[in-house]
Task: inverse folding
């Protein structure tokens, strides 16, 4: 059963398995475990960016195709559905029309991009996609009568998916982190802490939409896992390892490279549609900005290139850090500012500088952990297994030696 | 029959105008494109607007959109061309460093934009600190201010380049994927450092008194009389041309230039002859970074405002230019930059919203035609 679901590609590390299960459960029960708007938004973003980063990993990690236009396809989806809802009125037909239209545009554009990549060297592809993605962003910014320009556009989601749609009963949530914190700091008043940890969960359309994206993210992730463990995925990895040899073996590498760009772009488009429906307001700044493309790259590399599980870990770590690291840095800079002679350094730790530390972490991880978090965890697990096997072997050898004598 | 075979073996050899044109197109693609661009727009300018628009005008005297393209006159064309050249040369200064590092070291430095921003902020700092010199209106003080600002920007970014090459890039020579990742990380760090040092707000840069305003060409000059050209753009053209000349001189006439050219063609051969190619790499990287800083400082004064993210936005144009010119070719970079500058100004004049798209469109079109860029560098 697990073999079928995970396509035989297990995490292969106990820590990693624990992390993945924690993330899956945390996201699945999330609205009932974490209180607050920020937490809800962060969880929604994690679901969506798991799709984006995993599909990016298909190109970057599995095929070594560096594209900076991935967010452009994300933008196709977001703007496609927003424009469809705007012109056709808020309904589910409009959503599906928007999805279909933006998927079509994405596939055609990705095909053209792939064809362009036939004519240029691999390193050109990165640069060309960067330029094309930029020109799309400029276009979105300029065509303000359609896209709202820099101000962005409101996404008129159907009532069933918005906050106005409420169910009769409100659910009850249990703020896990608050409870744990309460138990640790005030262990004598467990009962009171438990009572305080309970909170109301608004059962509205937003929650429904969250679960739609959660289910879709899970489904698409498992589908991608199947994809990379299929013969198709093996060819992609062969191209990554040695394109010339893969071609010599009779695989049309150009076809595979184009195919992976098309498939990844389609996934990104779906994620873009979800993004528009979840956030209900899109601007070029949050869908198409170059910085966002860099973030996706960061998530992919920090999590671990060439392992889809890395996308889950990377997206979660990055988005949680983006939301909460700032608070942590704020506290830290407050401390440092109090230490004499260290005031100038406080600027390095101010809340807005979280990206600086992530950048440093990123560069260091490229040097020292090129396989990312997942790769490192797997390497440790493999070393431990090898160590265990080694001692057993030694023991066996000693026994054999004993028998002989 | 014989004539047919001769053309088949050498399609460029022929007498017809068409053949000569195609030979020119293939032999000098950069001049061909420049000529095409300037020629078409000149044609738009030369044809008097009244004649074209007359049959189309409606009651209010407005012509349809397409016809309005012809509204440009020759003075405007001249102004646009010089401004485009100025913009192109500024971009050339910024991109030449990147194309050189790629050509020689095979390193794609995506953090180049960070160096551009750094240079711009350094330049802005000097200009702000010595605002008295700029406001004085004296030629000597203005020149001194510019020199100080540019040299300071170049020294700082050059020093940063030494550090960057040693620490960030050296471990990833020969691995393009890691280079892309590491230099992206480096550019994030550079931009964040700028914000640590100078704060997150934009800083205005006031041009020195002498470089404000425009010169107006004497009405007596035929055709272009009355055209106005900003002084700062003229200065940018002059500085850019001088730099291009100096670079060509260094690359074509000096020992270092020979080594650089040899290194672009074949790194190992240079090493075999006993030259420390690493030192050459370092020198070229530092020079490239310093050029980025200079370009950034000049661009900051051109836009009169600097922003920590300006380098990232300029990187798009830099990338288009180095792809257009052919990765690694300084000459190609020069013509590519001018092409980009011109098309930006022309299209921006005709339809401001399309200027950014036209740049990328030019790149895609050229790539379809010549995948290796205008003047490709031979690599073995």
Result:
């Amino acid at each position: 059963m697990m073999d079928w679901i995970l396509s035989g590609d297990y995490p292969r590390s106990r820590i990693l398995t624990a992390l993945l299960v924690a993330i899956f459960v945390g996201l699945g029960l999330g609205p009932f475990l974490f209180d607050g708007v920020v937490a809800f938004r962060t969880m929604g973003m994690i679901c969506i960016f798991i799709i984006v980063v995993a599909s990016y990993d298909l190109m970057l990690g599995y095929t070594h195709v560096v594209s900076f236009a991935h967010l452009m396809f994300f933008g196709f989806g977001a703007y496609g559905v927003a424009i469809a809802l705007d012109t056709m009125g808020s309904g589910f037909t409009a959503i599906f029309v928007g999805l279909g239209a933006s998927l079509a545009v994405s596939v055609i554009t990705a095909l053209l991009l792939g064809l362009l990549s036939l004519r240029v060297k691999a390193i050109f592809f990165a640069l060309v996609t960067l330029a094309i993605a930029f020109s799309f962003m400029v276009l979105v910014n300029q065509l303000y009568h359609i896209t709202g320009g820099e101000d962005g556009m409101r996404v008129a989601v159907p009532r069933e998916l918005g906050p106005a749609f409420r169910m009769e009963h409100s659910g009850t949530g249990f703020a896990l982190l608050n409870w744990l914190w309460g138990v640790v700091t005030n262990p004598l008043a467990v009962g009171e802490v438990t009572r305080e940890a309970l909170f109301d969960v608004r059962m509205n359309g937003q929650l429904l939409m969250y679960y739609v994206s959660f289910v879709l993210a899970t489904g698409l992730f498992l589908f991608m896992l199947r994809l990379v463990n299929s013969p198709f995925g093996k060819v992609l990895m062969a191209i990554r390892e040695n394109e010339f040899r893969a071609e010599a073996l009779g695989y049309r590498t150009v076809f595979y490279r184009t195919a992976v760009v098309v498939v990844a772009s389609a996934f990104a488009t779906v994620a873009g549609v979800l993004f528009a429906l979840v956030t209900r307001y899109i601007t070029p700044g949050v869908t198409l900005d170059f910085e966002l493309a860099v973030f996706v790259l960061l998530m992919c590399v920090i999590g671990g290139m060439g392992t889809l599980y890395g996308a889950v870990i990377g997206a979660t770590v990055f988005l949680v850090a983006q939301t909460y690291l700032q608070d942590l840095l704020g506290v830290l800079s407050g401390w440092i500012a109090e230490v004499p002679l260290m005031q100038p350094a406080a600027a390095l730790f101010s809340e807005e500088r979280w990206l600086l530390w992530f950048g440093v972490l990123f560069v260091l991880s490229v040097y020292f952990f090129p396989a990312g978090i997942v790769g490192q965890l797997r390497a440790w697990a493999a070393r431990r297994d090898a160590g265990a096997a080694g001692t057993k072997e030694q023991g066996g050898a000693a026994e054999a030696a004993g028998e002989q004598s | 029959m014989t004539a047919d075979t001769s053309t088949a073996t050498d399609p460029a050899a022929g007498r017809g105008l068409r053949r000569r044109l195609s030979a020119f197109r293939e032999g000098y693609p950069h001049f061909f494109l420049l000529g095409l661009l300037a020629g078409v727009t000149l044609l738009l300018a030369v044809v008097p607007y009244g004649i074209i628009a007359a049959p189309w005008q409606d009651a209010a005297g407005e012509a349809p959109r397409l016809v309005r393209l012809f509204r440009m006159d020759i003075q405007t064309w001249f102004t646009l061309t010089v401004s485009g050249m100025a913009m192109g040369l500024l971009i050339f200064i910024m991109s030449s460093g990147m194309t050189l590092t790629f050509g020689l070291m095979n390193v794609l430095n995506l953090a180049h934009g960070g160096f551009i921003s750094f240079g711009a902020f350094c330049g802005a700092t000097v200009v702000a600190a010595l605002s008295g010199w700029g406001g004085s209106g004296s030629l000597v003080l203005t020149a001194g201010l510019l020199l100080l600002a540019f040299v300071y920007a170049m020294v700082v970014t050059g020093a940063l380049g030494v550090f960057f090459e040693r620490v960030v890039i050296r471990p990833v020579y020969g691995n393009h994927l890691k280079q892309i990742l590491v230099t992206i990380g480096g550019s994030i760090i550079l931009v964040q450092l700028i914000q640590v040092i100078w704060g997150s707000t934009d800083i205005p840069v006031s041009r020195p008194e002498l470089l404000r305003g425009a010169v107006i060409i004497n009405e007596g000059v035929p055709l272009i009389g009355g055209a106005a050209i900003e002084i700062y753009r003229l200065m940018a053209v002059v500085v850019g041309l001088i730099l291009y000349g100096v670079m060509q001189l260094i690359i074509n006439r000096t020992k270092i230039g020979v080594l650089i050219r040899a290194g672009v063609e074949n790194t190992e051969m240079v090493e075999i002859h006993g030259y420390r190619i690493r030192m050459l790499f370092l020198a070229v990287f530092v020079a490239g970074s310093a050029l980025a800083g200079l370009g950034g400082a000049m661009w900051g004064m051109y836009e009169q405002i600097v922003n920590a993210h300006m380098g990232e936005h300029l990187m798009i144009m830099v990338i288009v230019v180095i792809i257009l010119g052919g990765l690694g070719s300084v000459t190609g970079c020069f013509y590519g930059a001018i092409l980009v500058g011109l098309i930006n100004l022309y299209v921006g004049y005709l339809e401001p919203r399309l200027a950014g798209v036209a740049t990328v469109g030019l790149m895609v079109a050229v790539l379809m035609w010549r995948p290796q860029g205008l003047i490709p560098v031979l690599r073995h």
Remarks:
- DSSP finds 17 helices and four strands in chain B.
- Chain B has one domain: 73-369.
